[in-house]
């Protein structure tokens, strides 16, 4: 909602600005009312609910990376997937997965393991569909050889 409001400001679309400003006000009121009338839960239940929400949101956010996988397979190359970022995500997801397992927080472990799996699939695409114009650091694949006809 806030992003659409900002988009409206950037494009001077007053209908978009009006609708999303009203929606933002109503949504803020809803959140405040929800917070006010929300029953107090024991800390353990509240932590489980918040852990479930956080893990679900993190798993849903993998949609962008899954889209990049689909895009790379349809284009036949990984030209537009930054390798350094993928290797960084691999290190972070591995660390967070191990951390979640070590402390027994399975919300952290499961969400980051899902991210790690998607990241491994993305990195494997560099072997199947190398980039067109650059060489992938660390693994050394690419650039693709042009076909001689």
UniProtKB/TrEMBL annotation:
<keyword id="KW-0812">Transmembrane</keyword>
<keyword id="KW-1133">Transmembrane helix</keyword>
<keyword id="KW-0472">Membrane</keyword>
<dbReference type="InterPro" id="IPR004316">
    <property type="entry name" value="SWEET_rpt"/>
</dbReference>
<feature type="transmembrane region" description="Helical">
    <location>
        <begin position="87"/>
        <end position="103"/>
    </location>
</feature>
<feature type="transmembrane region" description="Helical">
    <location>
        <begin position="49"/>
        <end position="67"/>
    </location>
</feature>
<protein>
    <submittedName>
        <fullName>Sugar transporter SWEET1</fullName>
    </submittedName>
</protein>
<dbReference type="Pfam" id="PF03083">
    <property type="entry name" value="MtN3_slv"/>
</dbReference>
<feature type="transmembrane region" description="Helical">
    <location>
        <begin position="17"/>
        <end position="37"/>
    </location>
</feature>
<dbReference type="GO" id="GO:0016020">
    <property type="term" value="C:membrane"/>
</dbReference>
<feature type="transmembrane region" description="Helical">
    <location>
        <begin position="110"/>
        <end position="129"/>
    </location>
</feature>
């Amino acid at each position: 909602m806030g992003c659409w409001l900002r988009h409206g400001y950037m494009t001077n679309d007053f209908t978009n600005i009006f609708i999303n400003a009203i929606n933002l006000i109503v949504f803020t009121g809803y959140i405040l009312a929800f917070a006010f009338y929300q029953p107090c839960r024991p800390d353990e239940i509240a932590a489980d609910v918040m852990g479930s929400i956080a893990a679900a949101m993190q798993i849903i956010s993998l949609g962008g990376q899954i889209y990049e996988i689909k895009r790379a397979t349809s284009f036949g190359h990984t030209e537009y997937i930054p390798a350094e970022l993928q290797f960084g995500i691999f290190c972070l997801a591995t660390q967070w997965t191990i951390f979640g397992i070590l402390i027994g927080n399975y919300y952290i472990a499961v969400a980051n393991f899902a991210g790690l799996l998607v990241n491994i699939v993305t990195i494997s695409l560099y072997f199947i569909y190398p980039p067109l114009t650059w060489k992938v650091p660390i693994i050394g694949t690419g650039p693709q050889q042009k076909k001689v006809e």
